């Protein structure tokens, strides 16, 4: 910003000074030129009139005598102190006399051009023309002024005086140089003032930007320096007041978050023991349900189901508390992602068949190896598949495995109810549901996608969501092929066309195998969550 302000100020100053300098230079030049021309024309007219009087009063009667008189008059006119640098006497062809004298020239002469001579001859009055003259000091601009004169005995002639404008040109050059030096000095002063002003104005703004960056980096005690009582000082005080308020609120929220996390962790651990006892009693009652009345048997089954859900919720809470405490550890192996995906798809196939949904798997022919924790990646895929089955509404679900040099992606695509762009940004929040009033076919704690997102981050990857209402949703898991590698581009599909020309693709998937039920395999942390 400082450089831009300095550059703009300097450029504007240079342009303004150039325009002013050009205008002043032109005015001075025109004034000097016009004044010198006026003086030269007046001098030439006076001297021409004087020469004509001398010729009229001459007693010369022969051409030779007229030649001598003309030479004397011309030399006298061009004597020391004359304002012209040369004089010429040329015979005029208007009325050629029978006798003539030789053309005369005195001083530094410039021959009049044909147009000038023609103008003098035809107008019979004084005429002038700009020419280039040469003097002892060099060459430069000048003018030549001519007028007709009548010589005794020999007739019509033309008298020309040559005037130099070199002195005026030198004066103009001196003025232009002075203006140029003054302009340079003003530009330097203007740049220095602009630099000073930008430093005074932008300095606090830059300090505010640096302070804001440090605040964003977690240095909550960072503050601006307050000096003076002007508007910039007011900015500093307001900024510091805002920073202090933010620090207080962030620390209060952080403390509250720590208390909540500790509470969740403590409650989850404390509930494990009574839940184990309840589980044992429930299993005993459930195993003996055949001896109960129908009403009591149904109660035993509901109790068994809800204990399963309670155990799943408790497991999710414990897993979240481990992530919050930073205690989650990655047990990574270099494995082929395709085998993990195939196992997750096979486990979800019976549930998909029961829900009237088909699963399709598309994967490369070559191995897609990556450093991963198979337990966590399989848990993420089970969550995504269960979530897709819950919301696909019987439409096909596709699982696409893709890889490039740096990353491996697994995309789970459904064509069900979908979600809005805003919902796709909230779907990984804890306990968030897109439609709380919607009847759920499968149970869930509302933490599955939040845990899946944490599992992806633990691998150095990311879990992304895309959806459109009525067009389905896509969840893409991307992990680096080597631990610590930065993912530059995710190879798998995420966004897709949703218009009428892009119907849900149909791919052939693996035949559902005869496997135990989905719930029995997913463990306590499993459940569909959207």
Task: Please provide a written account of the structure.
Helix 5 runs antiparallel to helix 6 and helix 8 packs antiparallel against helix 10. Helix content is 52%, strand content 16%. The chain folds into 3 domains: 172 residues, PAS domain (Beta-Lactamase); 95 residues, Helix Hairpins (Orthogonal Bundle), CATH 1.10.287; 190 residues, 2-Layer Sandwich (Heat Shock Protein 90). It has a 5-stranded antiparallel beta sheet, sandwiched between helices. The chain has a 5-stranded mixed beta sheet with strand order 7-9-10-12-11. The chain is α+β, with helices and mostly antiparallel strands. This is Sensor histidine kinase MtrB. It is found in: Cell membrane. GO terms for molecular function: ATP binding; phosphorelay sensor kinase activity.
Roughly what is the average pLDDT, rounded to an integer?
A: 81
Reported by name, the CATH topology of the largest domain is Heat Shock Protein 90
CATH structural architecture of the largest domain? 2-Layer Sandwich
- The helix count comes to 11
CATH class category of the largest domain: Alpha Beta
Distance between the termini: 46 Å
Catalytic activity: ATP + protein L-histidine = ADP + protein N-phospho-L-histidine
GO molecular function, one term: ATP binding
Membrane topology: Multi-pass membrane protein
InterPro entries: HAMP_dom, HATPase_C_sf, HATPase_dom, His_kinase_dom, HisK_dim/P_dom, HisK_dim/P_sf, MtrAB_MtrB, Sensor_HK_Regulatory
Question: What is the compact description of this entry?
Answer:
This protein has 530 residues and is α+β, with helices and mostly antiparallel strands.
């Amino acid at each position: 910003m400082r450089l831009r302000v300095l550059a703009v100020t300097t450029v504007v100053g240079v342009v303004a000074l150039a325009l002013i300098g050009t205008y002043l230079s032109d005015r001075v030049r025109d004034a000097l030129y016009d004044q010198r021309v006026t003086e030269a024309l007046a001098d030439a007219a006076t001297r021409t009139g004087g020469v004509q009087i001398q010729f009229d009063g001459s007693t010369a009667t022969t051409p030779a005598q007229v030649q001598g008189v003309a030479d004397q008059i011309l030399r006298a006119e061009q004597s020391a102190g004359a304002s012209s640098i040369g004089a010429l006497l040329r015979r005029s062809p208007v009325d050629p006399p029978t006798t003539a004298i030789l053309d005369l020239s005195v001083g530094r002469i410039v021959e009049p051009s044909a147009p000038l001579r023609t103008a003098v001859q035809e107008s019979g009055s004084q005429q002038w023309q700009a020419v280039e003259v040469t003097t002892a000091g060099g060459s430069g601009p000048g003018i030549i002024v001519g007028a007709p004169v009548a010589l005794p005995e020999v007739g019509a002639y033309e008298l020309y005086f040559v005037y130099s404008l070199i002195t005026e040109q030198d004066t103009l050059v001196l003025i232009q140089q002075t203006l140029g030096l003054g302009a340079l000095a003003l530009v330097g002063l203007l740049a220095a003032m602009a630099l000073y002003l930008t430093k005074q104005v932008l300095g606090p703004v830059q300090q505010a930007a640096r302070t804001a960056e440090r605040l964003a980096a977690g240095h909550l005690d960072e503050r601006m320096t307050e000096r003076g009582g002007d508007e910039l000082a007011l900015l500093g005080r307001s900024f510091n007041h805002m920073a202090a308020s933010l620090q207080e609120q962030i620390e209060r929220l952080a403390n509250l978050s720590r208390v909540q996390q500790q509470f969740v962790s403590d409650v989850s651990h404390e509930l494990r023991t009574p839940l184990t006892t309840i589980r044992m009693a429930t299993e005993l009652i459930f195993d003996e349900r055949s001896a109960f009345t129908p009403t009591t048997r149904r109660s035993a089954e509901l109790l068994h189901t809800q204990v399963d859900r309670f155990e799943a919720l408790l497991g999710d809470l414990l897993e979240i508390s481990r992530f919050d405490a930073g205690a989650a550890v990655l047990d990574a192996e270099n494995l082929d992602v395709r085998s993990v995906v195939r196992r997750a798809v096979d486990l979800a196939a019976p549930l998909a068949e029961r829900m009237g949904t088909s699963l399709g798997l598309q994967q490369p022919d070559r191995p897609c190896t990556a450093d991963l924790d198979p337990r966590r990646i399989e848990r993420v895929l089970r969550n995504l598949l269960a979530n897709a089955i819950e919301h696909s509404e019987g439409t096909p679900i596709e699982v696409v495995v893709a890889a490039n040099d740096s990353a491996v992606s697994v995309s789970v695509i459904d064509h069900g109810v979908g979600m809005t762009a805003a919902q796709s940004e909230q779907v990984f929040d804890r306990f968030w549901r897109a439609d709380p009033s919607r009847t759920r076919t499968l149970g869930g704690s509302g933490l599955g996608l939040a845990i899946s997102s944490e599992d992806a981050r633990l691998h150095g990857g990311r879990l992304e969501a895309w959806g459109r209402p009525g067009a389905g949703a896509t969840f893409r898991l991307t992990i680096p092929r080597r631990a610590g590698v930065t993912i530059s581009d995710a190879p798998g599909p995420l966004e897709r066309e949703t218009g009428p020309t892009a119907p849900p693709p149909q791919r052939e998937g693996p035949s559902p195998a005869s496997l135990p039920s989905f719930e029995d395999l997913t463990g306590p942390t499993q459940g569909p969550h959207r």
